[in-house]
Write a structure and sequence with these properties.
By secondary structure, the protein is of the alpha/beta class. The protein contains six helices and nine strands. It has one domain: Alpha-Beta Barrel (TIM Barrel). The chain has helices at 27-38, 52-64, 85-93, 113-131, 147-155, 189-197; strands at residues 2-6, 8-9, 24-25, 42-48, 68-72, 97-98, 137-139, 160-164, 177-182. The chain is globular, with a radius of gyration of 16 Å.
Length: 212
């Protein structure tokens, strides 16, 4: 099954980081993506913990009876434009899964020992406290990892790890890691349907170039 990675939906409620706007889609694009997912062959995950996860995505998922996994940045929970504790609890109460995207947005391959503890120990612990549910699944920032990161994830008790397609060179056989395809600003229905029908595999990043 294809796993799509969604970031932000609609008008951002905060200033975006450089390049982050390429990962935001309109509400209309998201509704069309949900149509594709509802037909089967694909599932959704959400990174960063933007407020649109609860304000826009959650009610639409519930209305359609769809399940999704959400991976907030622990260090940004409660900040302007991000989900807060109430939002995390709403996700859990609606039957969604809350995992960890680490403490903040950076490449875990470059982590210092302190950052490793913060991303793989402190971040999931905080998210557990705020959401009221165990956190054992991870979404890798930028979808990148190496053998060192994989070892730390296993030591942290990870049960599932999502990475971007093309990001698993050298460790593609790792059963812990599942590939995802990132949704970007120019996603369209034909592309999403085509990707959802493809067999799950490690491949280059798909980048559509037309509108809905």
């Amino acid at each position: 099954m294809t796993t799509f990675a969604v970031h932000g939906i609609g008008r951002p409620r905060r200033a975006l980081d450089p390049g982050e706007d390429e990962r935001w889609i309109t509400v209309e694009q998201f509704d069309a993506l949900l149509d594709v997912v509802a037909r089967g062959g694909a599932q959704l995950t959400f990174d960063d913990g933007n407020s649109s996860d609860v304000e826009i995505a959650l009610p639409r998922l519930v209305d359609r009876g769809l399940y999704a996994e959400f991976f907030p940045l622990a260090g940004r929970v409660g900040e302007r434009g991000y989900v807060d504790q109430d939002g995390l609890r709403q996700l859990v109460e609606a039957g969604m899964h809350v995992g960890s995207h680490g403490w903040d947005r950076h490449d875990w391959r470059l982590d210092s020992p302190f950052a490793v503890r913060r991303d793989l120990d402190e971040a999931p612990r905080l998210l557990e406290q705020l959401s009221g549910t165990p956190v054992r699944r991870y979404s890798l920032p930028e979808g990148r990892f190496d053998r060192r990161v994989l070892r730390h994830l296993r030591d942290a008790g990870a049960t599932r790890v999502y990475a971007n397609v093309g990001g698993a060179r050298g460790v593609r056989a790792a059963t812990l890691v599942r590939p995802r395809t990132e949704i970007r600003w120019d996603v369209n229905t034909r592309w999403a349907e085509a990707v959802s029908r493809r067999p799950r595999r490690w491949a280059g990043r798909w980048t559509p170039r037309s509108s809905w």
